[in-house]
Amino acid sequence: MTASKPELLEKEGDRTLRGLLYDYFAFGRSLEACREIFANFVDLSTTQYLILIAIKNSTADEPMGVNQIAERLYLSGAFVTNEINKLVADGLLEKSPHPEDRRRVQLALTQHGVGLLIRLAALQRPVNDALFGMLTRDEFKMLSQLLSRLASSADSALKLAEHVKATLKSQEDQRALTTNSSAPRRKGRAALRNTR
User: Fold this and answer.
1) Residue 38: pLDDT band by 50, 70, 90 thresholds?
2) CA dihedral in degrees (117, 68, 71, 55; nearest 10)?
3) What is the mean pLDDT of the chain?
4) Which helix (H) or strand (E) holds 122?
5) Among the ranges 12-21, 133-142, 153-162, which has the highest mean pLDDT value?
6) Is the Cβ–Cβ distance between 100 and 107 less than 8 Å?
């Protein structure tokens, strides 16, 4: 089985978990494809598109800076900085000093950036309605909460995957080394017996 927590298993084993993952991957592929269509429609990379959307949805109480965007999109700060600089150069974003910390910047859409997102919304609306329109309001709120919780734990799961993979690989290499180093000795003893 591919899981051990009782909450993830049934009498049939991990069949429901596998089904959930297959459905999630299928839905995820569709989301990725839609995101690429949205970004291409306004001549942006998918990351640049997400940055503009994140800044558009920020508030005066919670203005977006590089770190906030990186955290929101689960991306590295260096990568986000590079993409933001391109958006500033293209006239879609503007930077201003943070009022309380001069080492930080606040990001805002320019008029050009706002116009680009208004144009894009005409494409987003029907597609998002088609992606999520079969859910009730309560189902949609629950899905939003669940995905937020899953996303927040995904990074630690990825780090765990890398750690366990390295540990298992090391154990396998050690077993192979032990097996290979003992094999010639057994063969040598057999050859010695045959010469007597």
Assistant:
1) very high
2) 0
3) 88
4) helix 111-132
5) 133-142
6) no
- Tokens read off for 60: 């005066």
Residue with tokens 């939003």: 144
Location of structure tokens 């700060």: 77
Query: Which residues on neighbouring strands pair with residue 97, listed in sequence order?
Result: 105
The DSSP call for residue 7 is: G
Please give the model's pTM, rounded to 2 decimal places.
0.75
pLDDT at 152 (0 to 100): 87
105 closest CA partner among 80, 125, 72, 127:
80
Whether 56 contacts 45, CB under 8 Å = no
Q: Residue 143 and residue 141: Cα distance in Å, rounded?
A: 5
* Cα four-point dihedral sign 35, 40, 43, 47: positive
